[in-house]
Specification:
single chain; 749 residues; alpha+beta; eight-stranded mixed beta sheet; seven-stranded mixed beta sheet; 37 strands
């Protein structure tokens, strides 16, 4: 059982891991990542080095090898318990062995054991994995290379030893280095590659700009996950209801098995017409589930002044509450070691309930202990759904939980009653948890890292929740006689505008001479083209099928016969990791066995939320609690100066209007008298105030439009419902007052 993440190094002992080098190969929507870890035993006794580290939750580990001197040994996949026993036996007899295993609790945590490394010996460990790239709001493709592994909290009744308050080294203090280089290839030109870490200049390899390389700048510190964002030119050339693309990966192995037959990867990417996207639902039960565990007091990033995670969550809840449509229902649940609901049950959205919720949001602190997501989710699912109010669940967490698979199983079991949108806050959030609950809950996941603002990403998900989606997706394969198709992916229940999904399928039969095929996805037809991609698609397809079978086995409590055996068989055949298997490499040394008592050294993993940082944050929080209702509260990392945009948003009524008051004038940079004086005589004060707020938003905050677009739509609807005269005159006077040139049509009036 791998449940000890990011262990601290034994005091005053050399760390056996010296460096990590990563090579990334991106091909369109998928990536192959190869990591090489250099170990050296500088002690006088043989040692075993243990390294617990994160990988992307969707990754398929497909190769593991070790090189000692000039000898390379490639690991084989075995049933996990058998591999562990063989590893222990080899170490007991003084032999060298290497073991790589996936955590029993979470598929994004791995444990690497380097055994019986003699004094002065060096070892080079290599592991490869393939993974899909996630589509972002701006159509960029995101690859995250996790470097930070925060301690994972184990619920008291989990049987895993209770709270896992495990020590770890602070980010930036890790005694090993990281280098990274990436090669990107695509059918479309590469516009740019961005990162949250400094990069060397992008180097194009051809005139078409379809191939390029880039490297991480020298001197990278382990203070954050490494994120690459790849932007292609015109990834979707034709706007259709459902854009599709297909890759067929051939195999050089003998046919008759998953790794021997061709495997298809089908990409679905919906694009709706503008008239469809402009329609918004006003129905729904919106449940905002917010992590209030102690780790939420950590800063959002590592710069000198950074807002804490719970503070960013408070600002986001303000924005969400102001953006909800009239007629919906909502509730807010905070969780830690226990959970607290704002209301005993979901309440109808009104001025009264919004004001009550906002007062409680202001008092929210990271004061509920550990991170136990399971119990609040069970409570939510035990409540009956409201008639004609589709349930939409928004989960905000830093993802530091140890029972990830239990949570995913629970979400999947209730997938028919809701959609789940998830947000991973800060460095080290579990990708397996954040991506997994969204996938199982038919929603969408977002990660907020570095200096990302939480608000625009959350509002994108709110747009998904309010706008139409593709549902009841079916795939019909029209292939020649003698060819059959077996799906490797579970059915897709829902797909949103701007969200991509990948499906995998195995082709069997007379496929060797298959020149081309035509497949239909609902009403859209696409051509299939061949592409030899070194079994990348096969491995992703195998990973998809393995994950589905693992969940099937867990939900059957191990009672469904043959599922675990099928996973082991598929894992061994494909060479892709699973929870029931492990990679083991054996270095058979001629001559005498390694002599002397063996020492164990645990390699540290960086953690953002170190104890010292939490202590510093606590001092700031104590200071700010004293000033909690005082506008003169000093600016600290956990209490930054208030954003004028958030101030304006906080003044909006639930109906969408603003009131002409001193606080509004202050945001506009005017006195109350200066704001009131130019109001057209026949215009109501509330209409005038609302027009001014809209002019200010469009005149000064267009770069943040994604954050305020819904509350602006509410404001426009409210003005139109008033059937107010002289709206054009209001817009003209507002422009003169604020020094803007916003057109009435731009406002939607």
């Amino acid at each position: 059982m791998v449940n000890c993440c990011g262990l601290v190094t034994v005091k005053n002992k050399p760390v056996p891991l010296k460096s990590i080098a990563v090579e990334v190969s991106v091909q369109g929507h998928v990536a192959t990542v190869s990591s090489t870890l250099q170990y050296e035993n500088q002690e006088e006794s043989p040692l075993e080095a243990i390294f617990v580290f994160p990988l992307p939750g969707e990754a398929a580990v497909c190769r593991f090898s070790a090189k000692i001197g000039q000898t390379e040994v490639v690991a084989e996949v075995q049933e996990k318990q058998k591999a562990r026993e063989q590893y222990d036996d080899l170490l007991s007899s003084g032999q060298q062995a290497f073991l790589l295993e996936e955590s029993d609790e979470s598929p994004d945590v791995f444990k690497l054991s380097v055994g019986s490394l003699p004094p002065g010996e060096k070892a080079s460990i290599s592991l490869d994995y393939v993974t899909e790239l996630a589509v972002q709001a701006d159509d960029g493709l995101r690859l995250c290379l996790p470097a930070v592994l925060n301690p994972r909290y184990q619920p008291q009744d989990s049987g895993s030893g209770g709270s896992a308050l495990v020590s770890s080294v602070p980010t930036g203090s890790v005694p090993y280095s990281l280098s990274l280089s990436a090669r990107v290839s695509s059918l479309h030109p590469i516009c740019r590659i961005e990162s949250n870490c400094p990069l060397d200049p992008l180097n194009y390899l051809n005139t078409e700009k379809t191939q390029a390389t880039v490297s991480l700048a020298a001197g990278h510190q382990f203070d954050r996950d490494v994120e690459l964002l790849v932007y292609y030119l015109n990834p979707c050339l034709h706007k259709k209801l459902l854009n599709t693309s297909v890759s067929v990966c051939l195999s050089l192995s003998l046919p008759g098995s998953l790794m021997g037959d061709p495997v298809v990867m089908l990409s679905l990417y919906p694009e709706f017409p503008n008239d469809v996207m402009s329609s918004m639902t006003s129905l729904g039960e919106f449940l905002f589930v917010v992590d209030r565990s102690g780790s939420m007091s950590c800063p959002m990033h590592n710069e000198s002044v950074a807002q804490d995670r719970i503070g960013s969550a408070r600002d986001t809840l303000l924005l969400l509450l102001k953006s909800l449509p009239m007629g919906c229902y909502f509730n807010i649940i905070g969780f830690g070691s226990r959970y607290e609901s704002f209301f005993t049950k979901s309440v109808e959205y009104s001025q009264k309930t919004m004001d009550e919720a906002l007062q409680k949001v202001k008092a929210m602190r990271a004061d509920l202990g550990g991170t136990e997501i399971l119990q609040p989710l069970k409570h939510i699912y035990s409540q009956p759904c409201l008639p004609d109010q589709p349930r939409q669940l928004f989960l905000f967490t830093d993802g530091e939980v140890g029972n990830t698979k239990e949570v995913l199983d629970l979400v999947k079991a209730n997938a028919g009653s809701h959609r789940c949108f998830s947000f991973g806050i800060g460095e080290g959030a579990s990708s397996a948890l954040i991506s997994g609950v969204a996938k199982q809950g038919g929603g969408h996941s977002q990660f907020i890292t570095g200096q990302d603002r939480m608000q625009p990403k959350v509002m994108q998900s709110l747009r998904f929740a309010l706008q139409p989606a593709v549902v009841n997706i079916s795939v019909k394969w029209n292939v020649p006689k003698g060819v059959s198709v077996t799906s490797l992916s579970p059915p897709i229940r829902v797909l949103f505008q701007g969200q991509r999904a990948l499906l995998y399928a195995q082709l069997t039969g007379k496929v060797r001479a298959l020149p081309s095929a035509v497949m239909s996805v609902n009403i859209v037809y696409v051509n299939v083209q061949r592409a030899l991609e070194r079994l990348t698609v096969h491995r992703l397809g195998a990973r998809t099928l393995i994950r589905s079978l693992e969940m099937e086995e867990r939900q059957g409590d191990g009672k469904k016969k043959g599922v675990q055996e099928k996973v082991v068989e598929l894992s061994v055949q494909s060479g892709v990791s699973s929870v029931f298997t492990a990679f083991i490499a054996v270095h058979k040394v001629d001559g005498e066995a390694v002599q002397g008592p063996m020492l164990r050294r645990q390699v540290p993993t960086p953690s953002v939320c170190g104890y010292a940082k939490q202590q510093r944050r606590c001092k700031e929080m104590i200071l700010c609690r004293y000033y909690v209702n005082n506008l003169d509260c000093p600016a600290t990392a956990s209490n930054p100066v208030k954003d004028p945009l958030l101030q304006l948003i906080s003044l909006q009524k639930a109906s969408g209007s603003w009131v002409l008051e001193a606080a509004l004038a202050e945001v506009l940079g005017k006195t109350e008298e200066e704001v009131a004086k130019p109001k057209p005589a026949q215009v109501d004060q509330e209409v005038w105030a609302t027009v001014l707020a809209l002019v200010w938003l469009y005149g000064f905050k267009m770069e943040a439009q994604e954050e305020w677009q819904f509350l602006a739509m509410k404001a426009v609807s409210w003005i139109q419902a008033q059937k107010a005269a002289s709206v054009s005159e209001c817009v003209k006077a507002g422009n003169i007052l604020l020094g803007c040139q916003v057109q009435k049509d731009t406002l939607g009036l």
